[in-house]
Design a protein that fits this description.
eight-stranded mixed β-sheet, single chain
Length: about 170
C-alpha cells in the first residue's frame, strides 16, 4: 500500500483548514540534533517513541524533549506488562517514516488503527507543538486545537497520561 509522504500531508492539512507554520531545515535523526536547530517556529519540542508489547499492542508515546522515560513505569501507566522500542523496519512498515521523523502526524498512515497515541500530561498546557511532517528535514508548528482537530479527523484521539521519567540515583 502507498504511504502518505510529506507533501501529501501538508496538502491534506491545508485542505482540512488546519493552521500550521512550516520550516525546512537540515536532516535531523534524534533529539540532540533537533535541539541544535535554530528554528523560528514556536511550540513544545516533543520526543516521539514507538513502543511495542510482546502481545503486539503498539503505542506512539509523545513526551517532552528532555524527559528520559522509564519504560517499566510507562508500561504500568498503560496497563501493559513490558514495553520495548519498535524497530526502524516496523516504523517504516506501519507508519511510513524513518527514525527521527516519527510524530503523531505519521498516524495518517496507520490505516488499521494498530497504534494507540499516548501523550504525556506534562504537555497538557503547551499551546503549540512542533512535529516533523513525516520527514525530518522539516518541522511544523501547530496549536493544540489544530492537532486535536487533525487527530479527530483521522480517528486517532490521544489519551493523556502521567508518564514518569527515569530517575538516576
Amino acid at each position: 500500500r502507498k504511504m502518505m509522504q510529506k507533501d501529501g500531508l501538508l496538502e491534506l492539512l491545508e485542505q482540512q483548514g488546519v493552521p500550521f507554520k512550516y520550516e525546512q531545515h537540515q536532516l535531523v535523526l534524534n533529539m540532540a540534533e533537533s535541539k541544535a536547530l535554530n528554528l523560528s517556529l514556536l511550540g513544545a519540542r516533543c520526543k516521539n517513541l514507538l513502543l511495542q508489547e510482546k502481545k503486539g499492542n503498539l503505542y506512539l508515546v509523545v513526551t517532552t524533549a528532555d524527559k528520559s522515560l522509564d519504560l517499566s513505569m510507562v508500561a504500568k501507566a498503560l496497563d501493559s506488562k513490558r514495553l520495548s522500542f519498535a524497530s526502524s523496519e516496523r516504523l517504516l512498515e506501519l507508519l511510513g517514516v524513518r527514525p527521527g521523523a516519527l510524530s503523531p502526524l505519521a498516524l495518517i498512515n496507520d490505516q488499521y488503527h494498530a497504534v494507540d497515541l499516548v501523550i504525556d500530561e506534562d504537555l497538557v498546557h503547551a499551546p503549540h507543538f512542533m512535529f516533523h511532517p513525516l520527514d525530518s528535514t522539516a518541522t511544523i508548528s501547530l496549536s493544540r486545537q489544530a492537532l486535536d482537530d487533525f487527530l479527530k479527523s483521522i480517528g486517532h484521539a490521544p489519551s493523556w497520561r502521567v508518564l514518569k521519567a527515569r530517575v538516576y540515583s
